[in-house]
Amino acid sequence: AAVRSRAEVDATLQTAKLNPAELLPAVHCLSFGPEAGGGECCLLQLEPGLCAELEAGRSLVIRGEKDEHAVVCSKDKTYDMKIADTSNMLLFVPGCKTPEELNADPASCNVIHSQIAGFSNNYWELRRCRPKLKKLRKLLMEEPYEGPDSQKDQTSTFSKYTTEDLLSLIQASEEEILHQLQVIDACKIEGYWRILDFDYEMKLLNHVTQLIDSESWPLSKVPLCACLEELGSLEPREMIEHILLSYGRKYVDDAGEVFFEMREDKICRAIAQMLLQNAVKFNLSEFEEVWQQSVPEGMRTRLDQLQGLALVDKSSRPETIFLLKVEDLPEDNQQRFNSLFGIREKWTEVDITPYIQDLCAEKQTVGALLTKYARSSMLNGVKVYNSRRPIS
């Protein structure tokens, strides 16, 4: 390609009736280089925080299997990837100087010849999104851990998952995955992440609560060493410690001894699940009586401990309660609402909130979700929500 001279540039400006005094004195003359092909380069638009991550030497990772929509993950956040088209062709020009750089360099008042290395008509736009964590529990629930004596565990050839495996399969950042493993009380057994079978978990919890009762320990001060000593002959010591970590808050006293403060709400919730899991519906007043009798002495049961686990049907006579776990509902917003409105036609905000709270994106409220996916009306002086579309 012919190299354009300053005189030719000035002549072009005159023909275009442009006043050179209103323009920067430096001129970029662009030409397509031999390697300038479309489709070989991708542009990614980053918010300042993500730019800082890369500039600090950290990495961004694209996650998602072939049948999943790709996401980009930093160390602690997840972003949806979406192609944004632009009417202007975007040119990649190595060494191209910005107007700010030209202003700062008085010596740049000349003709600069630059070659275009590539071009694109679109770019990837990133939007902060909820981590897609439902798959994590699904994978670990393929084969829950039933204890060291389980024949099933010794003979099964099921898939086991290390942290690295989960990072390659789950569309979430590393910190979000590790936090969720804590939330679902997963534990590492022989290097693999496992979820305890619910019956085995209840067996371990029962051992601990019975020991607390027999030793008359306060629920706020359960000694780790004594628990391991007393129960170590019944179950692996690491399983005893895991159940204490799951259902208690660990702390160290002034003498350096480790204790646990047992979490009343979580223990009551687990016992309620055990009572409800084998019944389609349970008479509410009978359930509350049996439930209170089943929890360790000194603990008090309350229905608000069951948010996102069980639902009370106040329209039936007598009132009933049944198991409805939020983790069993779809992860997609519309599918979640379809499922909920299939279970119950009209919901109060108080009842539906525990089942949609986890769908809220950053800075989004439950009220905004209900406005988008539900229609409100008044029923006997109470505001209720029903589906915006027919539910088949």
UniProtKB/TrEMBL annotation:
The keyword Amino-acid biosynthesis does not apply. It holds the Pfam family Dcc1. One of its GO terms (biological process) is DNA replication. Keywords: DNA replication. GO terms for cellular component: chromatin; chromosome, centromeric region; Ctf18 RFC-like complex. InterPro entries: Dcc1. It comes from the Eukaryota. Belongs to the DCC1 family. This is Sister chromatid cohesion protein DCC1. It comes from Callaeas wilsoni (North Island kokako).
